[in-house]
Design brief:
The complex is a heterodimer of chains A (119) and B (817). In chain A, 26% of the residues lie in helices and 28% in strands. By secondary structure, chain A is α+β, with helices and mostly antiparallel strands. Chain A has one domain: Alpha-Beta Plaits (2-Layer Sandwich). In chain A, the strands form 2 sheets. Chain A has a 3-stranded antiparallel beta sheet. Classes of the chains: A alpha+beta (119), B alpha/beta (817). The structure holds iron/sulfur cluster (SF4) (3 copies). The site of one iron/sulfur cluster has 13 residues of chain A, from helix 2 and helix 4.
Chain lengths: 119, 817
């Protein structure tokens, strides 16, 4: 098993998302759909909503952008130094693309962060 | 090629820089965009990273422009009705044939009944309002109509602020400064009040919603007034979850805390407001110079000089005292000699204002709003003690017949706390470089009616003060009545430009449908067939913002919309309006569209060509359309003197205009007309609060249901119900339910959510089904999930403004019992 894993290319890049500020605007989804002219139903990223009453009685709304199997990380853009379509357009500017090791350093900068490694 | 800082879609792609302002995303726009064009076709659109407004970002609706522009259902030929109205039978005709037909029919109406008998209607307006006015005025009709009951979207707020301040204000998010938050002049608000607004969804009021998130990241803390759980209310320092429609009471409660605890800016009150003006205790009206001396002017007011113990006149024209500077008393009762030597008792405006505010102790405010008084006090203190603090308000302010007194109270908040015209506060918003194309409330533009005489016939101009002073529109509810009564004159023609009355903006739309059938001739201008266009005699196919040249000066920046591509067969609203305006008025002031643009841009010192090169330009400091402290610098008044352009030159906490209009001059709270408090009889049958109008990130009002990438995000018309309420009604998540009140019932999909409280439901608006049959009776499914059927027409306030669309009553029950 181990040797087979080694043959696969190791992931290098990821998306760091500060979901404290994600407003659930779904821009990232449509940015991706446009970039790849995806058909209806296919998105490289999907945004989920979680609403709950916290133990202190406070209601809270959180949005989680989740890159799907269809996320290719926009190599045609990133190779030339441009940001992925979703990151560029994110209305809350809460997404960041980069090398995993760099993003991993940043993930502890503040709470409510998530680092995705889609590929 | 210029460096756009983006990667072109392909090697043969050309990039065109432009500005968003509908049709397309539907918003009030201003985002800078880069359109990637290949062989004349749009292949991609993205946010312009060089534009200070959006800094490269762009919303879902704008990113879906390729699906919108090339949608198979786009109208691309003028259509002439061949069957009955609503039957859906059409014949394609050429533009020339269409124009000939319109010129002929509307020409005959003008001859027989006068130009005023044609009403020119629009929806949200956007880059349409100016050009629609141009056509209406060229034809000779003063009747331009924003088709919502009580004109209840934004212009009531604008008119209310102008009534007391002479100008409108917006929150300062550094939108006037190229370097934005980094500009050393700017200060991040310590407190941001988000009043009834889920602003990230659709940027409806010419403000980029996510600026407030930028500000939060930089330290701003939130007070959120909202009955619903939103992204902002989750993250607010203070979330005041008020009963829908009680915003006015909450604002009075804030004023109560601020005055009682002395948290106001004493210097501002004395120097810049009309607080020291005297009010006669006899008549209850402002004392005027004409009351005390023979040659005194009615325009001038009176204060009490506590140094000389005498009355002193304030010269409104000069915005200064007539002679020496008195020490104007703020409080007290004074005996003033009138010109006939009799004496009357007077008190100050400040005393009258404080007495009104005193009627709102927090116990009472809690009872009205259902917000615990401890929370109100804490939030009011936090607002008043934060400097700068900024307020941004949304549609709920307009969603009550008591709009104007509510807006007066909120305006008083940002003025009395000294947050007016300071960096990071609430600042005056004027058209960039004072370039005004058409008249928004308060401003006169280059596009005008031929004479003031022609305006006298405007529907309801004689009835409502604000419509004489600020709002150059026909009052919508009165128009609907007049279509049926024909009094004082008949309405014979209707021009409906990109406004979907039946599925979007009209309340009691079945009444509107009947009204359409009473009108002799109807033209519709739109991009798609809608339930409303079905009633037209001629339909003209319009263009998206990417297919036109235009100019935008609404606040800042000054911008050009640059044509990036075209869709064969369509014309822009502007082209349509201009070409027909020339037919109706051979003496039209402009020979070409470019001449018109240059005329609008005169005050900027730029020609349209020059502006197009830049795409956007911000007014420099010192220009009257750039902040800050303009009232001190004399930039708000035509005569260059410090002060405001109100009747008195002061910020009027006691409105002299409202007094003239025989309306309450002071801010106060009015209970909306259809609540459990005002109509307990109705509440017995309809126990739930019915609220509508919340924004979807996927749609702008009635638009975008046909755009696959967007519809996928928000596929069905929903009613939000609290899980406890749903349980008691036996309703499960995703089930179709009836929402019913005394007007009608309509079907929605239940969304069980704690976003709403148990006693309230929130129903999605603007729903129709473009995928269904367009002809009657289906009408694209417009009668299935149309919440507007449950909202009454004719409930506007005493000044003709406001509509109770967020504070009605209903019941909800299962479709399949
Ligand atoms: S990185 Fe590219 S492919 Fe992945 S979700 Fe974002 S836009 Fe889509
Ligand atoms: S674009 Fe940004 S803010 Fe909007 S949903 Fe996606 S991650 Fe969230
Ligand atoms: S809705 Fe907002 S983000 Fe979208 S185009 Fe309009 S202004 Fe820009």
């Amino acid at each position: 098993m181990k040797s087979m894993d080694n043959k696969k290319k190791k992931p290098e890049f990821g998306l760091l998302i500060d979901y404290e500020y994600c407003t659930g605007c779904h821009t990232c989804e449509v940015a991706c759909a446009q970039e790849y002219t995806h058909k209806t139903g296919i998105r490289g990223i999907k945004v989920f909503e979680v609403e709950q009453t916290l133990p202190n009685g406070k209601e809270y709304l959180t949005y989680f952008p989740f890159p799907t199997e269809a996320c290719l990380l926009c190599p045609h853009l990133t190779k030339e130094g441009f940001e992925p379509a979703c990151v560029k357009h994110c209305m809350a500017a809460c997404m960041k693309y980069g090398r995993i090791e760099d993003l991993a350093k940043e993930v502890g900068r503040k709470p409510r962060m998530v680092l995705w490694v889609p590929r | 090629m210029a460096d756009y800082n983006v990667k072109p879609r392909s090697r043969d792609t050309e990039i065109v820089r432009s500005t968003v302002w509908s049709a397309g995303p539907g918003c009030h726009g201003t985002c800078g965009v880069l359109a990637h064009i290949r062989k004349g076709k749009l292949v991609k659109i993205e946010g312009d990273p060089e534009h200070p407004w959006n800094q490269g970002r762009l919303c879902a609706r704008c990113l879906a422009m390729t699906q919108y522009a090339y949608h198979p259902d786009r109208l691309t030929r003028p259509l002439k009705r061949t069957g009955e109205r609503g039957e859906g039978k059409w014949q394609e005709i050429s533009w020339d044939e269409a124009y000939d037909l319109i010129e002929n029919r509307m020409g005959k109406i003008r001859e027989a009944f006068g130009a005023e008998s044609v009403v020119f209607s629009m929806g949200t307006g956007r880059d349409i309002s100016s050009w629609l006015c141009m056509l209406a005025y060229a034809y000779g009709s003063p009747n331009v109509m924003f088709a919502m009951s009580g004109n209840a979207c934004y212009s009531p707020r604008i008119a209310a602020v102008e009534t007391v301040l002479g100008d409108y204000c917006v929150p300062d998010a550094a939108q006037w400064l190229e370097r934005r938050y980094e500009d050393p002049k700017y200060r991040i608000p310590k407190c941001l009040v988000i009043w009834g607004y889920n602003i990230p969804n659709t940027c409806p009021d010419n403000i980029f919603g996510h600026w407030f998130i930028d500000l939060m990241k930089r330290g701003a803390e939130i007070i959120c007034m909202d009955p619903r759980l939103t992204w902002f209310s989750s993250r607010a320092k203070h979330w005041l979850r008020l009963r829908p429609g009680t915003d006015g009471a909450l604002a009075m409660g804030f004023l109560h805390v601020i005055i009682q605890e002395g948290l106001y800016d004493q210097r501002f009150v004395e120097k810049w407001t009309n607080a020291p003006f005297l009010v006669s205790k006899d008549t209850g009206k402002l004392l005027r110079a004409s009351d005390i001396t023979e040659d005194g002017s009615r325009e001038n007011f009176v204060v009490w000089d506590s140094n000389g113990d005498k009355a002193v006149v304030w010269d409104s024209g000069k915005a200064d005292y007539i002679s020496s500077q008195p020490k104007a008393a703020l409080k007290g009762t004074f005996s003033v000699e009138l010109r006939d030597k009799s004496r009357i008792e007077c008190r100050t405006v400040w005393d009258a204002f404080c007495e009104e505010v005193d009627k709102y102790p927090l116990e009472r405010v809690e009872e009205i709003t259902r917000v615990p008084k401890r929370e109100i006090r804490a939030a009011a203190r936090f607002y008043a003690e934060s400097k700068p603090a900024s307020i941004h308000w949304g549609l709920p302010i307009d969603s009550t017949p008591g709009i104007t007194p509510t807006a007066q109270a909120i305006t008083a908040l940002w003025c009395l706390t000294g947050n007016l015209e300071i960096p990071g506060g609430n600042v005056v918003a004027r058209n960039a470089f004072e370039c005004v194309s058409y008249a928004l409330p308060g401003a006169e533009g280059v596009i005008r009616l031929a004479s003031k005489e022609a305006d006298r016939k405007r529907i309801s101009v004689d009835k409502y003060g604000p419509f004489r002073k600020f709002i150059w529109r026909a009052q919508t509810d009165t128009v609907l009545d007049q279509i049926f009564t024909g009094k004082p004159y008949p309405v014979k023609g209707l021009w409906m430009q990109t406004g979907n009355i039946i599925a979007g903006i009209g309340f009691e739309p079945k009444k509107w449908k009947e009204a359409f059938k009473k009108v002799d001739f109807i033209v519709a201008v739109d991009l798609f067939m809608t339930p409303t266009t079905q009633y037209a005699d001629v339909i003209l196919p319009a263009a998206t913002f990417l297919e036109k040249d235009s100019v935008r000066s609404w606040w800042v920046p000054l911008q050009s919309i640059n044509k990036a591509m075209s869709v064969e067969g369509c014309k822009s609203d502007l082209e349509i309006n201009f070409e027909l305006a020339k037919r109706f008025d051979p003496n039209l002031r402009w020979d070409s569209v470019e001449e018109l643009f240059d005329d609008i841009l005169k005050n900027s010192g730029m020609t349209y060509k020059e502006l197009q090169e830049k795409v956007w330009a911000l007014p420099p400091e010192g220009n009257s359309s750039a902040p800050y402290f303009r009232h001190e610098k004399g930039l708000l008044r035509k005569d260059g003197r410090p002060g405001f352009s109100t009747p008195s030159g002061k910020m009027e906490i006691y409105s002299s205009l409202r007094e003239e209009w025989n309306l309450e001059p002071l801010p106060h709270y009015e209970e909306p007309p259809f609540t459990a408090v005002s109509r307990p009889d109705l509440a017995e049958k309809y126990p739930l609060i019915l609220s509508t109008g919340r924004r979807s990130f996927a749609f702008f009002n009635a638009e975008h249901r046909n755009i696959p990438w967007l519809r996928e995000l928000d596929p069905d018309p929903t009613v939000e119900i609290h899980p406890d309420t749903a349980r008691s009604l036996g309703i499960s998540d995703g089930e179709w339910v009836w929402v019913e009140n005394w007007l009608d019932k309509q079907k929605f999909k239940a969304k069980l959510t704690i976003a709403v409280q148990p006693q309230m439901v929130m129903v999605a608006h603007g729903w129709w089904f473009p995928e269904e049959e367009g002809a009657e009776p289906s009408l694209f499914g417009a009668w299935k999930s149309n919440i507007n059927q449950l909202i009454p027409m004719g409930s506007q306030g005493k000044d003709g403004l406001g509509s109770p669309l967020k504070n009605l009553l209903c019941k909800v029950y299962k479709v399949h019992a």
